[in-house]
C-alpha cells in the first residue's frame, strides 16, 4: 500500500497538472478549427493570396487540365469519344506538315524577336537618355501606345492598301520609275507577316526595356564616359547588362505572342503560310477537338521549354 502511494506521488511530480492533455483535445474538430484560425491570423499572407490562387485555379489550371484530358480522346465526324489513346500525338509528332509549321513558326518568332529587340531598345534608349524633360518623356511614351487604341485586325488590314499589287508603295515606285513591275512579295508573303508582327508587338519590347533603363544610375554612364569608353562601349558594357531583365521580359511577351498567333499569319500571308496556331485553328473549324487539344499541349510544352532555357540565362526575380 505504501509502495503504491509512493509511486502515485512520484507520478504526480513527474507529470504536472499543466502537462496533461488540454480540455479542447476532447473536441478534435473544434481544436483543428481554432488551430487553423490561429495559423491564418499569424500568417495573413495566405488569406491575401487565396483569391488570386482561386482565380488561377479556375481560369488557368482547370482549362489547361481539360485540354490535356481531351487530347487523349478519340473522335469521329460527329462526336467526341472519351477514351485514352495516343494516336493524336503520334500523328502530330510524325507528320511532316507539323514539322514545317513549327519551323515556320520558329522563323517568325526569331525574326520578329530580333527586329523588335533592335527597335525597342533604340526607342527606349532615346526616351530614357536623350529626352531630359519628364513631361516630354511621358507624352512620347503615350504616343507610342496610341496604336493600341484600335484593334489588331484593323491595324493589319491597314497594310493591305499600302503593300498590295496596286497599293500605294508599288504605285509610288512605278511613278518614280524605280521598278518596272509591281513587287509581288510585299503582300501575302513572309515579309508581310513579319512586318505585321513587328508593327503589333514592338511596344511589348519598348515598355520593359524603358522601365529598366529608367532605373539605371546616370552616374554609371558618366563614369563610363570619364573612363574613356566610347558610346557603343557604354551601351554594350553598361546599359545592356543593366537592362537584362527588361530585355528578358520583352522577349517573353514577343515570343509567346508570336508562337500562338494565327490571325496575323492567316491574313497577311493570304493563306499561303501555315503556323502552329493556324493548324490548331483549322482543326477546330473541322470539329477535330482532340487533335487540336494535342496540338495545343505540344505548343504549350514547346513555349515552356523555350522560357525555361531563357530563365537559365537570367534570373528575372533577382534582376527585378
* Distinct helical segment count: 18
Series of H and E elements: HHHEEHHHHHHHHHHHHHHH
Mean pLDDT: 83
Task: Count the E strands.
Answer: 2
Report the structural category: mainly alpha
The CATH topology assignment of the largest domain is MetI-like fold
List unreliable stretches of 5+ residues. Answer: 5-27
Instruction: Give the total of domains.
Output: 2
Identify the CATH homologous superfamily of the largest domain: MetI-like
Tell me the fraction of residues in β-strands, as a range: under 5%
Rg for CA atoms: 31 Å
* Overall geometric form: flat
Strand order, largest beta sheet: 1-2
> What fraction, in percent, of the residue positions are helical?
over 70%
Overall CATH class of the largest domain: Mainly Alpha
First-residue to last-residue Cα separation: 76 Å
- Report the CATH architecture of the largest domain: Orthogonal Bundle
How does this structure look, described?
There is one protein chain. This protein has 320 residues and is mostly helical. 73% of the residues lie in helices and 1% in strands. The protein has helices at 2-14, 28-42, 44-70, 87-94, 96-130, 134-145, 152-157, 160-163, 168-175, 190-201, 203-214, 218-226, 231-242, 244-260, 263-268, 276-285, 289-313, 316-319; strands spanning 74-75, 80-81. Strands 1-2 form a two-stranded antiparallel sheet. Helix 5 (96-130) crosses helix 10 (190-201), helix 11 runs antiparallel to helix 14 (244-260) and helix 14 (244-260) packs antiparallel against helix 17. It is flat.
Amino acid at each position: 500500500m505504501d509502495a503504491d502511494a509512493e509511486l502515485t506521488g512520484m507520478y504526480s511530480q513527474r507529470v504536472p497538472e499543466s502537462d496533461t492533455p488540454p480540455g479542447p483535445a476532447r473536441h478534435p474538430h473544434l481544436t483543428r478549427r481554432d488551430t487553423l484560425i490561429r495559423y491564418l491570423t499569424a500568417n495573413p499572407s495566405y488569406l491575401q493570396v487565396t483569391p488570386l490562387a482561386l482565380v488561377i485555379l479556375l481560369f488557368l489550371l482547370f482549362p489547361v487540365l481539360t485540354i490535356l484530358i481531351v487530347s487523349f480522346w478519340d473522335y469521329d465526324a460527329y462526336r467526341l469519344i472519351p477514351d485514352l489513346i495516343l494516336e493524336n500525338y503520334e500523328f502530330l509528332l510524325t507528320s511532316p506538315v507539323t514539322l514545317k509549321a513549327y519551323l515556320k513558326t520558329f522563323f517568325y518568332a526569331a525574326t520578329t524577336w530580333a527586329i523588335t529587340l533592335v527597335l525597342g531598345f533604340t526607342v527606349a534608349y532615346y526616351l530614357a537618355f536623350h529626352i531630359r524633360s519628364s513631361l516630354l518623356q511621358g507624352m512620347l511614351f503615350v504616343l507610342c501606345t496610341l496604336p493600341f487604341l484600335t484593334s489588331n485586325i484593323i491595324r493589319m488590314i491597314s497594310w493591305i492598301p499600302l503593300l498590295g499589287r496596286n497599293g500605294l508603295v508599288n504605285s509610288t515606285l512605278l511613278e518614280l520609275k524605280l521598278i518596272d513591275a509591281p513587287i509581288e512579295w510585299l503582300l501575302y508573303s513572309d515579309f508581310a507577316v513579319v512586318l505585321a508582327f513587328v508593327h503589333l508587338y514592338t511596344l511589348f519590347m519598348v515598355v520593359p526595356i524603358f522601365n529598366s533603363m529608367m532605373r539605371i544610375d546616370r552616374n554609371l554612364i558618366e563614369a563610363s564616359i570619364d573612363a574613356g569608353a566610347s558610346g557603343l562601349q557604354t551601351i554594350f558594357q553598361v546599359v545592356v547588362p543593366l537592362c537584362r531583365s527588361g530585355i528578358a521580359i520583352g522577349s517573353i511577351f514577343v515570343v509567346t505572342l508570336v508562337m500562338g498567333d494565327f490571325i496575323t499569319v492567316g491574313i497577311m500571308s493570304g493563306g499561303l503560310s501555315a503556323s502552329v496556331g493556324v493548324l490548331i485553328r483549322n482543326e477546330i473549324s473541322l470539329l477535330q477537338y482532340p487533335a487540336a487539344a494535342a496540338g495545343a499541349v505540344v505548343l504549350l510544352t514547346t513555349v515552356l521549354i523555350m522560357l525555361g532555357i531563357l530563365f537559365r540565362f537570367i534570373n528575372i526575380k533577382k534582376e527585378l
